[in-house]
Amino acid sequence: MTNFWLMKAEPNSRIVKGKDVKFSVEDFEAVGITSWEGVRNPEARNLMKGMRVGDKVLFYHSSCKTPGPYMHMEILPIEAYPDYTAWDPKHPYYDPKSEEANPKWFMVDVKFISRASHFVPYRLLRQIAASNVTLPTGLEYLGEKDARVVKDMDLIRRGRLSVQRVQPEAWDVIKRMTEKGGWSEEVVKGEKDGEGRTTIVVGVGGKRKRENENETKTVNGERGRSRVKILNR
DNA sequence: GCCAACGTTGGC
DNA sequence: GCCAACGTTGGC
Question: With a 7 Å cutoff on the CB, does A40 touch strand C?
Fold first, then answer.
């Protein structure tokens, strides 16, 4: 049975021990196949150990201007194997506690399959998770159940793990969103208003300039208790 | 740069 | 085994 996952990578340059740890969706597409080294969290490692041939994975852009998942990559026919970068003192991912005789960290190989037609911003997923009744304009093809599925994602509930399990229902929602879109990618951005709340502007069909086709939604800044207020303008 | 969430470390 | 201090993650 196919299982679904999410794995995070950083698309922006960041120098660790003189080496750039950047790995964007463009980098991934260019290289095609890569080992997923550098995971240094026990829970994330254990999840990788449970990955099987053909499992599907969302490739997630993290620590960047517009974070979010891309479709999709696949686990190659090989079990998790020791992450040898942990043994190299000069490597950014060196961990003196991992010995060759008794490796602490493991990795899998993944293959690039395809990029999303519509990139799904994390902020949009948060907005969907926060909207109890009204889904953002342009996303009418999603139902209340879909919103609940998004709300239940580890990505929303926990956030901080770099390898996560994705429920089949959540995979289905993300997949539909990447196929259908309905929002304007360059427009989905968070802005603080005067009261410190985050304002999320969702453009419809890329018509950002036509004011009356847009809605402005204000999400209460408090974590975990988001409320959506529609301020038509 | 800020900071909340959460994991790890180490003294006891 | 407790828990305070500290470090990391990652969206904002």
Answer: yes
The model's pLDDT over A122-136, given as tens digits with 9 standing for 90+, comes to 999 999 998 876 788
Residue closest to A44 by CA, chosen among A122, A127, A160: A160
Written as six digits, the tokens of A66 are 């517009």
Bridge partners of A202? A215
Closest nucleotide C1' to the C-alpha of A63: C10
Which nucleotide is nearest, taking the CA of residue A161 and each C1'?
A: C9
Helix (H, G, I), strand (E, B) or coil at A176: helix
Contact present, A222 and A196 (Cβ < 8 Å): no
Q: A176 CB contacts (<8 Å, ≥6 apart)?
A: A141, A142
This prediction's pTM: 0.80
pLDDT in tens, A48-101: 999 998 899 999 999 999 999 987 887 776 788 999 888 888 888 888 888 888
CA–CA dist A51, A165 (Å, integer)? 10
Q: Which residues 81-110 in chain A have a CB closer than 7 A to strand B?
A: 97
Q: At A130, list the tokens.
A: 């926060």
Query: Distance between CA atoms of A102 and A121, rounded to whole angstroms?
Result: 39
Do the beta carbons of residue A216 and residue A197 sit within 8 Å? no
Residue–nucleotide distance: A41 CA to C3 C1' (Å) = 22
CA distance A69 to A178: 9
Q: Copy the structure tokens of residue A158.
A: 């926990």
